[in-house]
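Researcher: For the annotation table, I need structure tokens for Serine protease. Please keep the output clean. Sequence:
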Amino acid sequence: MITQEIQEQIESYVAEKMPAAEKASFEKMMQQDKHLAEAVRQHQVMVNSFATFSRRTKLKKQFDSFHKEWKEESKEQPFIYTYGVRAFWRNHMTTVAVAASVAVITVFSTIFMTNYLRSLEHQQVSNYAELKKENNHIKKRLSDISASLQQDVTTAADYAASATGFMISPNGYIVTNRHVVSGADEVYVESTNYENIRQRYKAKVIHKDQKLDLALLKISDSTFKPLAYMPYALNTRETDLGESVYTLAYPREDIVYGDGAISAHTGNDGDTSKYQISVPVNPGNSGAPLLDAKGNLVGIVTGKNPNEDGAAFAIKSKHLFTLVQEIPADSLLEPLTLPRKNYMHYLRRPDQIKKLQGLVFNVKVYKK
């Protein structure tokens, strides 16, 4: 969503009134956010259109004035028409040349800016791939299913896309990536614990943060029973390079484990809100929790660089606090408290996974 502040930044950037440091930061934001890049491109096109129209109107008035003067000159000297043309050209050659130059510069400036913004967007898209898994085998949508069938209309075959999410509070709040639930009409979450007990709940999208690419969901199903506590803790400190990390995700219908390490303290194009990690990821891994060896949450998997092997990215876990703090109090259906105490730091990894498995969900998106 383009806020008033971002709109003002766009106008300042397009008008070339933005300070150099702020301009560099803003261009980096455009590389990371294709929606922002598109908004800047559209504003640039609109401004150029207005400028071109204004120049054309001014130029038309000039030519109308020239034409009127030319006609008067022709009336006064009917037998020396050639002289009138030469006199007109001699008197107004500079003005006409400037007007023509302005028109040419305007056209080429518009073409250059459009191509430049497209190149920024293309660079951002080519170096970063979201990990939402599209369901290419979908046969039916919600609007195509008859209500007379008397069944759950959101069966596994009907979802349009899927990814991963995980519970962050005992009362059913779940975090995933914003791009996962963007455009969703309905969202369901599914998980299977280590005892192979399957859980499926309807969830409501509470809040989405476009800049952080995070979304907060809340289980809204009456069959859900709140948990006693969350077994893991949220790590708000910077995780060391080389630190061992692992993730649980749903790139397929079954939960999948993956491990690796923190490769860099910045994400794609130097994004300080993310880590680069060496964990193998695939479509469906978006929104997966990233944990350290002690079972502390250190990040949320969000994407990868398709042009570089082993270059995946995770949003740093401290930004969950930012997400929660920006949510209006009246938007929360119940109080939300992020986990602060780790109850599994002494466990072996297989035992940690057993504790976490039922808290990691396959997020399925349905569209009408």
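Researcher: And a one-line annotation?
Model: Confidence is low (pLDDT under 50) at residues 77-83, 139-154.
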